[in-house]
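Q: what sequence does this backbone want?
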């Protein structure tokens, strides 16, 4: 698998918060893009 400490940090505390943050930003942007046209119309 590689270096245990490095892979543990990347999979446990490195990648997961970034993925969650990216999903949050994506959903916020998606909701804004869908709400704005509805509000305009």
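A:
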């Amino acid at each position: 698998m590689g270096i245990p400490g490095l892979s543990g940090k990347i999979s446990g505390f490195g990648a997961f918060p970034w993925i969650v943050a990216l999903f949050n930003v994506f959903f916020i942007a998606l909701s804004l893009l869908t709400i704005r046209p509805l509000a305009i119309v």
